[in-house]
Design a protein that fits this description.
There is one protein chain. The protein is built from two helices and five strands, in the order E-E-E-E-H-E-H. It has 104 residues and is of the alpha+beta class. The chain has a single domain (8-96), classed as Aminopeptidase (3-Layer(aba) Sandwich), CATH 3.40.630.
Length: 104
């Protein structure tokens, strides 16, 4: 298997997740979210063990964030992977971040 697999990322709102799939439809990873109006709260990102280390999580984050941007929505990155990805690629995704007041 190549280190750079071709995956397609799509939103599956019925399952509340963005999915990364191989051309044959095999699910390789997912970024789970909760939606509150125009806000997408990322809660968990997972790549199936047999596909780890092949860049799928980064591709999943990049494409999911692009889909959020295309819908003119905002994000709350509770998921540690999505949070690190957004921070690493700052300022590219800073406009997507919803300003959330700190908990008191």
């Amino acid at each position: 298997m190549s280190d750079n697999l071709t995956v397609t990322v799509t939103d599956n709102p019925a399952e509340s997740r963005f999915e990364a799939r191989l051309p044959d439809g095999t699910l390789t990873g997912q970024a789970v979210y909760e939606r509150d109006g125009r806000t997408v709260v990322f809660t968990h990102t997972e790549v199936l063990p047999e596909y780890e280390g092949k860049g799928i999580a980064s591709r999943l984050a990049q494409e999911a964030l692009g889909l959020v941007r295309g819908g003119d929505d905002r994000i709350v990155p509770l998921c540690p992977f999505i949070r690190r990805y957004v921070k690493k690629h700052s300022p590219e995704y800073d406009d997507l971040l919803l300003d959330v007041p700190p908990a008191s």
